[in-house]
Fold each of these.
Amino acid sequence: MGGTIGIIVDISLNSLVLSGVFLIVAIGLNIIYGLSRIMNMGHGALYAVGAYTGYTLVATGFNYFVALVIAPIIVGGIGLLIERTIIAPMRKRSMVYTLILTYGLMFFLDGMIKYVWGNKPCFIDLPAFMQGTLSILGTQYPIFRLVTLFLIAGIMGGLMLFLNKTKVGLILRASSTIPEMVSCLGINMSYVHMGAFVLGCIMAAMAGIIAGPLTTIDPLMGSEMLISSFVVIVIGGLGSLRGAVLAALLIGFVQTLAEFFITDLAMVIVYVLMAVILAFMPRGILGEGKFE
Amino acid sequence: MEKRNKILNIEGIQTYYGVSHVIQGLSMYVENQEAVSILGRNGVGKTTTLRTIMGLTPPRGGSIHINGVDTTKAPPHKISKLGVAYVPAERHIFPGLSVEENLMMAARPGKGKDPWTLEKVCDHFPVLADRTKQDGSTLSGGEQQMLAIGRALISNPEIIIMDEPSQGLSPLLVQMITDVVLKFCISSGITMLIVEQNYRMALKVASRHYLMGTKGKIVKIASTKELMEDPEIIQSHLSV
């Protein structure tokens, strides 16, 4: 039954793509939380800004892959501005303040998106070679989704190299464990928090532009992704990188399967799953409060 | 003129934890290339004194000068950059980072002719050299203390502030740590301020001792010679 195998291949690859996007957004959120104890409610909106910026770059003639590099840099710059102007002065306050602050940031960014790009959905024009399909085990699978899978693997590999092989990555990893000692070694934690926020924004924007062709780019995409990435980091365990990987894979597969079989209840099933997992593991799968 | 300049000078500091007034008017100093200890029972404010110097719990009153620079309200990273290395009692080895990475976090070029580098630390601490790729938090207590001291040295500091290096270690390991401190810190001209409950170790390492009573009050200042000749001083000032 080539048809059945085709469906399995379809669902599996789609799940991986969705998991990958969840993962990149969630890891950005997790890095900011793990290092600064800030739950950035504006993260989904930054993901959307990344997608829209990518759309505009491609629409003005840039190659998709060039846009994939430039858009995160632009959003990283926006993140830098946000962090220095409104987040940094709030750092010493309790988490409630930054939660409300970033909640406001979300509305501001959503408003700016509607102001700049309007309410109409946008679509990213892909390079010619990414259009069309490839025959895999009896299914015609879209090439751009396969390219997306490679991009996700590349982004994750790049992040791991950055965290494990560079001095800045070393400082970020150390700061997620004993920040007080890091400051005693002569490192200004204010810059560590800044770096974490900018890195998180870059991750969100990268996810936004690779997710752009998968979905329609519309003003709602940010808040939908914010909720999904919350689910991922809550299930994985706040601040845990490995937990986020496991949870992203789990949620990606469950959501794709649920959408295939019972479309209307897909998101409900994801939340039921989250509730069940948290009932037995209140701190998530790997909630040890640090990332490694 | 004074013989040596005061690398660390504390005048009348008042430190609080929330509303709790932990250090009530402590004054002390450490001269350049001097090794000084703070002796005292549990909970009198020894660790808080070091945390205050390091900028981790800034004082609400009084002043701290390091090499003549007013650091009373300075954050820890600025104090570190003045050449102060901190070895906390908990050691604070970064979990998830290898021994080498723990050292690289602190490494800073030195001015002298034979500055501390990764190679030099590995040469002088064979236990670390064999485990450079191992997760620092999986080392034994004694090895973690060696790593904490190595991490202080690799920053090529002028002064090391050390909190109870003997804590939780066997007598043999205390002896090893004492040797390391004498050989690499004190004989090479690094100024030391060391907090200890192990008086024997403190007497071996430091030449001048502040005996601390409750709330950070200095009840007696004595040289090693005085304390060796009359052990009753420690007994009478610090025992219950």
Amino acid sequence: MTDTIEVKLISTADIIAAIKASTEDLFSTMLSMEITSSETLAPQAVVSAPASGIISLIGLAGSWAGTGSLACTGDFACKLSSQFLMAEYPEVNEDVLDAVAEFTNMIIGNVKNALEEKVGEMGLSTPTVIFGRDFQTRSARTHEWVGVRFTSGEHEMFVQMCLAPNPDPGAVKGIRPGYQFPALG
Amino acid sequence: MLDVLIVDDSAAIRKILQRVLRQTEIPMGDFLEAGDGREALEVLKTHSVRLILSDINMPNMDGLEFLKNLKSNESWAKIPVIMVSTEGSQAKVLEAVELGAAGYVKKPFTAEQLKEKLTALY
């Protein structure tokens, strides 16, 4: 007799719906800002993002594993951080990077909560935030990214996920590995 | 005066929690901060606090492990702890309550939601 492992499925529509609900919840509760989901991004190998700006990545592990990302321009990150922390941020600094990390944690964390109802518990890593020019982000796995392009006034923000059933059946969630943000020069 | 320890690996969230606490009618004393459960236990060795707000997902020692350590220490066991976390599954909330959490606020939260939890305690 052969042992079988039941793989519970998440559809692209499940991920998109969870991203929209989670992002809108953050904007209405902690940012008091309007945001509109303007486009569902078709599955692709690389993360959609502005050519320059901020991208924040957070890992998920459990019966399904992958990465969530949030990307926007530096200007929009400053605007969001100013609203979040009730202080003026004219340029990207440590506070802005930390705020973007927390937005990612809250948005992807709540997507995770929604998807856990279908596939069971997953763990979340510490977000990693990158600020720079002309970069591209690609998952080392072959799975594709899906996501949503949001607009708020003249600004755009992308929330995306790359998730697949975890090939390691013994995979369990763990606590966050420590990570220090690199200091800006 | 209420001296408060805020435990979260996000400096942004620690700032926001301080701001919301200052907006309440409860007279606030000093705010102490820690980036994870291990740091929080060190802070408690040298400072006395009357309220703790703690995240769950943190490096080194997570919020539930911190809560377990806190409640097993006679000197600290009675300090009320409100968990403030993105983790929102019923299992996690129940685990926190069983370990002795006095309240649970899910991120993202409004100032009113946090104030409600505090009003219930004080």
